[in-house]
Every structure is written in C-alpha cells, then in structure tokens.
C-alpha cells in the first residue's frame, strides 16, 4: 500500500529531510543557549527567528533571508522607538501610528517578487509592534523603550545569525546546485513547449498548458538566482547567466505561441519545404533535450540553424509565410542563447554574460488590499487589548500580522492558513505535554531542556522540509515554541499557558476571518487592469526603443509581462476548458511588444527619416490600442489605417527593398488575423463575465 504524505515524511524519511531537521535543531539550540547565556528576556524569539530561516535552507538563500530579517528587524525596532518618542504619553496615538506602519510594511511586501524581502517586511512590522506594545504594557519610560527595542532586535538577530552560520558550516547546500537544476528544467520545458506548438497534431490546450509550466519554471529560476550572488566570487556571474536564460526563455515563449496558432489554424500557409523545416526543428529539439553536454547541445542547435538558412524559406511563398520563416530563425536564435547561458551558469569562472533581473509589474490595487487587511488585523487586536488590558493580547497582534503579510501574496492564502492552524493545533498539545508537564518534572538545566523540548521540534522541522506539509510544520513549530517559552526563568503555569493559547487561537481565527471578509479585488477588475497595464507598457516601448538597445527594452518588457501572464492564466483556469483564451491573450501581448521592438530596429536601421519615424510611432501606438480593443471584444480599425500608412510611406521613401517591405506586410497580416481572432473570442465571453459580476453584486 502506498504511503501518504505524512507516511513518507515520518515513516520513510530521506537523508535530506533528516539532515535538514538536524541542522535546524542545531541552529535553534545554539541560538537558545546564547540567548540564555546573554540573559535576554525572551529567548524564544531567537528560536522563532531561526525557524523562519529554515524554509529553503540553501546557504545563499539563508544568507539573503537572514540579511532581510536583520534589516527588517533593525528598521522595525527603530520605527518602534520613533513612534514612542512621538507619543510616549498617548498610547492611543502610538497604536494608530503603529497601524500605519503595519500598513506600509504589508503593502510594500506585496510589491516585491522576492519572498525573502517579503519576510523582511513582515519582521519589520512585527518588531515595531513588539517594541511599542511591550513598552505600553510594562509602562516603561523613554529609557525602557530603548531597552525593549535593543532586547527584541538582539533576540531576532541572534536567531538569524545562528541559523545562517549553521547553514553555511554544517552540511552546506549551495544555491548554485538549485540554479543548475532550474536551468536544466527551463531549457527542457521551453524546448518541449516549442516542439508541441509547432506540431499541428497536438491540441492547443496541451501546448498552452506546457507553456504555462515553462513560464513558471523561468520565473522560479529568476527569483532564486538573486541568492547565488552570496556564494563566492563567481556567484554574480552565475546570477547574470541565469537572468539571461530566463529572459530568452520568455522571449521564445512569446514568439512560439503565435506561430503555434498559425500552424493549426492556417495550414495552407505552409509549403512542403516549410513542413519539412518544422519537422526538423521538432526532431532536433527532442535530441537537444536528451543531450547532457554543452558541446552536444550547441552542435545540434548550430546544425539546425544552418539547415534552415540553406532552405531559404524566407525567400519563397506569401509575405505571411516568409514572415513565419523569419520567425523560426528568431526562435532558434533564442535557443542558442539559452544554451550559452546554461553553460555560463556551470562555467562562471571562464564565461561572462550580462543580463538584468526581470523587471517587476506592480499592481497597487491588490497591494493596497493586502495593506488594509494587515492593518485591520492589527486594529482588531489593538481594540481587544485596549478594551481588556489583556497582556497576552500582544501575541494576538503580532502573529496574525506576520502570517497575514507572509501568506497574502500566495495564490491560495486561506488554504495555507488552514494548514498552519492544523499544525498549530498539534503544537498546542505538544506544548502542553512536553513544555508544561514533562519539563516541569525535569531538572532545570539546559541539557535537559534541549532533550525534552527538542524532540517534538525535530519532528516539526521534518515537516517543514516537505513542501506538501510545510505550512503544517511551520504552524506546529511556531505555536510549540511560543507556548513553551523556553528561557532561564520558565514558569509552568497551566492558566498562563491557556491564556497564551487563547490569545494565539483567537488571533488566527481573526486572521482567517479577515482573509474571508476582505477578499482580493474582483477577477474581472484585475483582468482589465492587467490588459490596461500591458497596453501602457506597449506605448512606452517607443520611448525605450529610442534610447535603449532592443535587448534591454525586451528584458524590461519581459519582466513586467511574466506576472501578468501568470495572473491571466490563473483567471483562465476558472473558465471552462473550451472557453480558455486569457493565457493566449497574455502571451500575445508579450509577443506584440517584441514585434514593436523588432520592427523599430528593422525600419529605422534602413530609413530613419522624420516622416518614417512618425509613421512608425503612430503604427506602434495603434497596435497597442488595438490589443486593448481586442481584449474588450472589438477590433480597432485605426490599426489597419496606421499599417497601410506605414507601408505606403516605406514604399514612397524607397530606402527598403521590396522583399523587406513584403516581410513587414506579412507581419501586419499576421497581426490582423490575431487581433480579429481575439476580438471574436472576447466579445461574447466578456458579456458573460460582466453578467456574472452584476448577478453577484445584486
């Protein structure tokens, strides 16, 4: 009988899980020992700090997370001191200022793609709460405020430092190995997506699902690459190579999606030679995926490019067919750069590549929703505390803010919170038995504390190392530590234990309720904002084309588009299978941006007169508006007019030969086909979506 997830974790654990739990336990016991030796008031905060650093335990990621945690803690502590300096005698004003600080931290956390930085913002909010609220609870003076801030910062920084050192010294696991695996996966999934898109026998539904898989892998590679810079002098080189690989993978995906549609919906465009070239590309890509060495992959790609060039497909057939042939060469160029970038990741000592990180699309409406939600969580806890003067209410204010900020950007935060609460429930029973019954009977020595306290903690860490039950393990460890409160002066008081349990439980229930009551903005609203933001970026590409290289402008556009495409794909998953088109719409927007950049370079390199530049600018503007119009279910005739004007201007100028103009004409025809198709697909479905929204609001 096959074991379930829990059975695999605890009955047949792998060596990596055992190493991870051992490293985590060593880091936490070391931080506890040092905190107790330093006579810190609340050593358990050092443990909590170390727990969060156990998520993704590779040395570079731990260093990055530790720096974010330490930076957020110091800034949060400083903000807490500043708030109390401004309102020492006015606790209500202090709590109001603190709510504003929580709002700023939570909103900012949702505007970053880096989860470690998100955690840093969460710790900034939590430390500010601890400094201000503990000062109010204990009626401290101005000197007391500073002492509280120093103590809280010391505890959290100590835990982060111990976790970082243990991660680097005990069974170190390097991010570069993770990056190498990600890079292999990106190449494999992207080339597989290309093979599927160029094969008319494979349904577009399957091809679309594959491109979504490849897109997710490219974004993962980009996000994880930031931490490899901390791993030796060649780390920055590996990071740049990884950025380049993810950028070119996105460019290839943007290009292949359109050709996949044309191959299926307009088979008459493809000649026998063109079909032979497509088969050659598919077969070669399958061989490249099976090759293991850089030289073998490079030889296959170069041979394929030479064969396609000799076929001279771009010189025969209709303008649209010739434009498609030119696009195939572009796809192979992206593939070649991806192979080079993968080699540079492995051989960073001898290879130098330059590429920026993916730019970030920031949608402030969801960010403000997250900020309002977190500040509301704090406000509810503060109101309960002010009304009852409940000392344990501090936990009710801190923990929901930390979890709410960390999980808010997840696709399904309520599901994560459910698992945290389930793990926390087990942690409550473990804390009662091990932390308040068994420890009360044991000798009050550090060794005995570690022996009794460490067993359940080791089991919780084993769960954290497995993605399926990570949230359960995290909830278990956090509540187990907080309710046990290991320190020099532990008190084994059941009433105090129940008091803290009630505070944390109430806080988590409030957190879950607020997530349900204050949902994310409506999907239709967000979808329209994504399309409008894409249109705005396409408009900006003219200015960027004038002052930046095509590669830099393309990289900027890719980064801002990748999350929009993922968001559209999430909306797509809520539609019936036969009505899904939003992922295609997002990928088409990315492809349009690349066409704008390519057309600008192609035209201005041959004809850079003011009249031609103006006609080209108007054409790019019309294409951006046409893309937005087709997403709303309409076709903007201004694009047809602008295209005709541009072609007439190029013919009148005489700077470009007929073959080059015919390629641009073929591109325009392809764009017209795509825009009409999406306008038709969107018109009826948008009406249905709007009707659904009206029914929900009524």
Automatic annotation (TrEMBL):
The family database entries (Pfam families) matched by this protein are listed as: FUSC
Keywords assigned: Cell membrane, Membrane, Transmembrane, Transmembrane helix, Transport
One GO MF annotation is:
transmembrane transporter activity
* Topology in the lipid bilayer: Multi-pass membrane protein
Which superkingdom does the taxonomy of this entry point to? Bacteria
- UniProt-recorded name of the protein: Uncharacterized protein
* Gene Ontology CC terms, in alphabetical order: plasma membrane
Matching InterPro entries, A to Z?
Answer: PHBA_efflux_AaeB/fusaric-R
KW ATP-binding (keyword) present: no
Q: Name its cellular compartments.
A: Cell membrane
């Amino acid at each position: 009988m096959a074991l379930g997830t829990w059975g695999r974790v605890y009955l047949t654990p792998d060596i990596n899980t055992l190493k991870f739990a051992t490293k985590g336990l060593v880091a936490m016991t070391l931080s506890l020992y040092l905190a107790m030796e330093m006579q810190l008031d609340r050593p358990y905060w050092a443990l909590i700090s170390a727990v969060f650093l156990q998520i993704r335990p590779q040395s570079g990621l731990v260093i990055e997370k530790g720096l974010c945690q330490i930076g957020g803690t110091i800034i949060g502590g400083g903000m807490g001191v500043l708030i109390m300096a401004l309102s020492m005698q006015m606790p209500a004003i202090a709590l109001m200022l603190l709510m504003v600080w929580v709002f700023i931290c939570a909103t900012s956390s949702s505007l970053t793609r880096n989860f470690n930085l998100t955690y840093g913002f969460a710790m900034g909010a939590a430390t500010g709460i601890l400094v201000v609220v503990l000062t109010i609870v204990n009626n401290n003076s101005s000197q007391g405020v500073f002492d509280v801030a120093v103590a809280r910062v010391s505890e959290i920084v100590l835990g982060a430092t111990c976790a970082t050192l243990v991660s680097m010294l005990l069974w170190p696991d390097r991010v570069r190995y993770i990056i190498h695996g990600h890079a292999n996966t990106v190449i494999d999934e992207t080339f597989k997506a290309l093979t599927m898109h160029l094969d008319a026998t494979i349904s577009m539904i399957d091809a679309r699902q594959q491109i979504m898989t490849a897109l997710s892998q490219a974004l993962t590679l980009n996000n994880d690459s930031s931490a490899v810079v901390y791993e030796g002098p060649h780390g920055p080189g590996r990071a740049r190579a990884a950025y380049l690989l993810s950028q070119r993978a996105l460019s290839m995906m943007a290009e292949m999606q359109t050709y996949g549609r044309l191959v299926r919906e307009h088979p008459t465009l493809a000649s026998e030679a063109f079909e032979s070239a497509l088969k050659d590309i598919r077969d070669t890509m399958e061989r490249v995926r099976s090759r293991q060495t850089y030289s073998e992959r490079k030889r296959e790609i170069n041979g394929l490019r030479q064969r396609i060039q000799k076929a001279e497909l771009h010189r025969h057939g209709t303008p649209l067919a010739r434009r498609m042939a030119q696009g195939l060469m572009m796809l192979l160029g992206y593939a070649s750069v991806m192979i080079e970038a993968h080699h540079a990741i492995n051989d960073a000592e001898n290879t130098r590549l330059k590429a920026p990180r993916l730019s970030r699309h920031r949608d402030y409406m969801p960010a403000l929703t997250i900020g309002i939600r977190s500040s509301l969580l704090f406000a509810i806890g503060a109101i309960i505390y002010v009304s009852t003067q409940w000392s344990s209410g501090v936990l009710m204010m801190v923990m929901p803010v930390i979890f709410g900020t960390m999980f808010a950007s997840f696709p399904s935060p309520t599901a994560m919170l459910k698992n945290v609460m389930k793990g926390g429930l087990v942690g409550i029973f473990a804390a009662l038995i091990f932390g308040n019954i068994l420890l009360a009977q044991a000798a009050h020595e550090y060794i005995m504390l570690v022996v009794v306290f460490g067993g359940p903690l080791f089991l919780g860490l084993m769960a954290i190392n497995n993605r399926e039950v990570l949230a359960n393990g995290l909830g278990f460890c956090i509540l187990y530590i907080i309710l046990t409160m290991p320190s020099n002066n532990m008190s084994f008081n059941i009433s105090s234990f129940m008091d803290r349990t009630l505070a944390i439980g109430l806080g988590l229930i409030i957190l879950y309720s607020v997530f349900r009551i204050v949902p994310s903005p409506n999907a239709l609203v967000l979808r329209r904002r994504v399309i409008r933001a894409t249109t705005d970026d396409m408009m900006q590409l003219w200015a960027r084309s004038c002052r930046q290289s095509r590669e830099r402008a393309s990289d900027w556009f890719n980064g801002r588009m990748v999350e929009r495409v993922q968001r559209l794909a999430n909306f797509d998953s809520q539609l019936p299978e036969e009505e899904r088109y939003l992922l295609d719409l997002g990928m088409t927007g990315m492809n349009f941006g690349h066409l704008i950049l390519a057309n600008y370079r192609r035209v201005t390199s041959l004809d850079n007169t003011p009249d031609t530049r103006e006609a080209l600018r108007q054409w790019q503007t019309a294409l951006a508006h046409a893309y937005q119009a087709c997403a709303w279910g309409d076709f903007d005739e201004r694009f047809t007019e602008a295209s005709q004007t541009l072609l007439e201007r190029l013919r009148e100028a005489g700077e470009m030969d007929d073959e080059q103009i015919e390629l641009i004409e073929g591109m325009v025809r392809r764009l017209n086909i795509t825009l009409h198709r999406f306008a038709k697909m969107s018109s009826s479905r948008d009406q249905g979506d709007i009707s659904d929204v009206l029914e929900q609001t009524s």
